[in-house]
Amino acid sequence: MNRFKVHLVLAGIAAVAGAAALLLFLTDGYAADHRESPATNADAAADLADVYCWHESGKLYAVLTVAGLITQHLDTAPVFDTKIAYTVNIDNTGDSVPDVIVDVRFGKNIFGQMGVRVVGLPGATGTVSGPVEQVIASGPTRVFAGVRDDPFFFDLAGFRTTLATGTLSFDNTRNGFAGFQVVAIALEMDLLAAQGGDAGAILRVWGETGRLSN
Predict the structure, then answer these.
(1) What residue ranges in the chain does DSSP mark as E strands?
(2) How far apart are CA 101 and CA 125, in angstroms?
(3) What is the DSSP pairing of strand 136-138 with strand 128-131?
(4) How confident is the model over 86-95, as pLDDT tens digits?
(5) What angle do CA 192, 203, 132 make, to 5 degrees?
(6) Secondary structure of residue 208 in the 3-state scheme
(7) 41 alpha carbon, distance to own chain's centre
(8) What is the CA radius of gyration of the chain?
(9) What does the pLDDT read at residue 42?
(10) What is the mean pLDDT of the chain?
(11) Can you tell me the distance from the alpha carbon of 128 to that of 123, in angstroms, rounded to the nearest whole number?
C-alpha cells in the first residue's frame, strides 16, 4: 500500500462540547486542507480534508472527512472507494508511534450494496460493519460513514481581501464552505481503551489515507 496523505490533529474544536476537557489531553492544532495539487484533486476518495477529535463522558470521538467540496446537487454517487484504506492512529505513550490503529475500509455485499468495515476500534469486541449512511452500533461503540455538510468554517472572501489589501477583512457570518459536503467517517470509541487503560494518558491522534496497490 502506498501512503497518500497524513493529517495530524492535536487539539479539539472550540465549538464542540467537551473541548475544554479535551485540552487536558491534546495540545496545539493544525489547519485544514481542502485545496490540493491537480494530482491529489483527481483522487477525491483519498483526499483527506480534516481530522476532528474530542472526548466527552468517557467516549473518544474521531471524524475523518474526505472528498471535500462535494456540491449538494452532485449527480453521481458519493465517493466510497473500495481500494482506499482509511486509518485513525492513536499514540497514547508520547512517542508519536501509533499504539492503536483503527482501520476503515469500504466494500460491497453480494447485492452490490456499499458498506463500511472498521477493525481495531477501542471498546469494540470485534469488527464493526454495516451499510453506509447509517449509524452502526456495536456495544459501546458506534460508526457512521456517509455524506454530511462540511463542518469546516472559513471566510475565503475575507481571506482574499485581507491578502489583497493588507487590512483584516474577515466576517464571522460568511462561510466559504456553506453548501458543500464531504464524506465523513465518524467513530465513537471507549476513551479509556484508547488510552491503553491509563486515564491520564495524553493522546495524539492523526489520520491517513492510502491507495491499495492491488
Answers:
(1) 2-9, 48-56, 59-71, 84-91, 100-108, 114-119, 128-131, 136-138, 141-149, 180-190, 204-211
(2) 15
(3) unpaired
(4) 999 999 999 9
(5) 75
(6) strand
(7) 17
(8) 18
(9) 64
(10) 78
(11) 11
